[in-house]
Amino acid sequence: MTNNKVLIDLGFSGQESETYLSLLKLGGSIASTVAKDIGVKRTTIYPILKNLASKGIVSVYFKKNKRFYHAIKPHKISSLFEKKIELFNNLIPALESIEKKQAQTIGLRFIETQEELENFYNDILDEYKNYKTKEYYVIGSTPNWEGVDKEYFEQFRKDRGKHNIKTKLLLTHESKDSNPTERSLLREFKYIPEKYPFKSTIDIYKDKVIIIGPDISSLAVVIAIPAMVDIFKSVFEIIWDTLPISKNNNQTKN
């Protein structure tokens, strides 16, 4: 890769790159000499030099009443880019906050940490206390869902049962080895055929959906868009009605 191409990749225009390299070669010079060296008109070189000076890439000084231009040393250019990157990194939390606020206005929420996810599930238990019909749907992989925090989710299942919240679950075939069947958990489940494997889990609540999985950019995403929640519910019910009850599905039905 040529020096010119590297500078262009860093954000220089073609003529800015040629001008900077010319000044390095000349060791500093007047505008007319630089213009001649890179093959442009003198009237063209002035705005280029002015722009490079405004970016701190070229310095300007006077000698015998003539304006001389001097290229900033390459290692100082590197420092300028490092400082810009540092400033941008410092800005990232504020930019992400703006992004999250925008997402929330359209019914999306991103969960980034395990603590946030556990708080979400704790809120579900509190929320369902106020519902007359205490039931929600799940499409998922038991081992992958538990894998986020096995101890927490095993306890969550028990707490959910104690709160009389029933669940209907469409589980992956691999879930058979780790899927609990205790009646106290108030779970009714069916297994999806083995040829349909997936690693994510989708919980479908009355007014929102949460998707947890390794293939999304965050730990989980919450969708609170009514039309989409209705679609998820309908898809679940269609699949549920086409599958037989599992042989080891010994949950009580109220």
Give the helix/strand layout.
Elements: H1 3-9, H2 14-26, E1 29-30, H3 31-38, H4 42-54, E2 58-63, E3 66-71, H5 74-105, E4 108-111, H6 114-128, E5 135-140, H7 142-148, H8 150-162, E6 166-171, E7 187-191, E8 201-204, E9 209-212, E10 220-223, H9 226-242
Parallel strand pairs: 5-6, 6-7
Antiparallel strand pairs: 1-3, 2-3, 4-10, 5-8, 8-9, 9-10
Helix pairs in contact: 1-2, 2-3, 2-4, 3-4, 6-8, 7-8
Summarize the structure.
The chain has about 250 residues and is α+β, with helices and mostly antiparallel strands.
β-sheet strand percentage: 15-25%
* Pattern of helices and strands: HHEHHEEHEHEHHEEEEEH
Number of helices: 9
State the CATH class of the largest domain.
Alpha Beta
User: Which fold name fills CATH's third level, the topology of the largest domain?
Assistant: Endonuclease, Chain A
* Overall 3D shape: rod-shaped
Low-confidence stretches: none
Q: From the helix content, strand content and strand pairing, which structural class follows?
A: alpha+beta
* Beta strands, count: 10
The helix fraction, in percent, is 40-55%
